[in-house]
Target: PIN domain-containing protein
Amino acid sequence: MIKAIIADTIPLYALVDSSDQYYKARSELLKIQQLKIQVIIPYPIALECYSLVLYRLRNQNAHRFAQQIKDSAQLIQPTNEDYHLAWQKIKQYSDQKITLFDAVTATISQRLNYPVWTYDYHFDLMSILIWRDS
Model:
């Protein structure tokens, strides 16, 4: 049984933007809550998602998003080693457009042995365990 998952930016953003192509994240979040799976959000992902909401959906939505994350999310700070391994990961996959946000999330996933809640195929390329609603 999975105890926790690590959230990527794509499903978090989709929870805020009802016009997003991945709006199915809402039903997945309900499933995650029903299964009592803890959602962990790395600080870099929270920052990236906040920026997307701010620039795409404007200030009020961004501030609401930030407050919800602050009040209800389990935020995690990457370690120095996570950042070091992330740099190695983007070098390893230099032919791919893997962001440092994703590389750090991947290293946290590997360290904690928790799957990532994402729709980004780069995690599959990096052989990272993915949480999928079955």
Q: What stands out?
A: The longest helix spans residues 43-57. The mean pLDDT is 93. The helical segments are 9-16, 25-34, 43-57, 59-72, 80-92, 100-112, 121-125. The radius of gyration is 14 Å.
